[in-house]
Amino acid sequence: MESVFRGVAVYLVLLIVVRLSGRRTLAQTTPFDFVLLLIVAETTQQALLGDDFSVTNAAVLIVTLFTMDILLTFLKRRADWLARFIDGVPTVLIAKGEPDWEAMHRARVSLEDVLEAARVGQGLARLDQIDFAVLEVSGGISIVPRGE
């Protein structure tokens, strides 16, 4: 039973940490992020297993983690506030061609990030070509080009 409690606790801690780290972290992985992920994975493994490295304990933990994921998915469908808390909501970064510097600062997104998304996704080179830029819950940036 201790393994189940460990699994639930580690799942919730990781969920909170990933949520607080911001959506851009999920969309852009740097070498630093990759190294951090490896360290977190090793630390998580130790926290989950403790001194019990048995196959049975591993199976209990796997079932626990998947059960937590399924349960949260079900709860998010039933409670919009929980979905907004866990997944967040889209953030408008540029509206009518004007950057929202406060929203960009909160989301830790630079103007260069937005312009890169505009170049890659829409072939746009300048800020004045962007009508809207939205940071999606997935961490990607959607660009709506300005109409001619």
UniProtKB/TrEMBL annotation:
It comes from Wenxinia marina DSM 24838. The chain crosses the membrane at residues 58-75. This is Putative membrane protein. It is a multi-pass membrane protein. The keyword Membrane applies. It holds the Pfam family YetF_N. Belongs to the UPF0702 family. InterPro entries: DUF421, UPF0702_alpha/beta_dom_sf, YetF_N. The lineage of its organism: Bacteria, Pseudomonadati, Pseudomonadota, Alphaproteobacteria, Rhodobacterales. Residues 79-148 form the YetF C-terminal domain. It is found in: Cell membrane. Its main location: membrane. Residues 12-74 form the YetF-like N-terminal transmembrane domain. Keywords: Cell membrane, Membrane, Transmembrane, Transmembrane helix. One of its GO terms (cellular component) is plasma membrane.
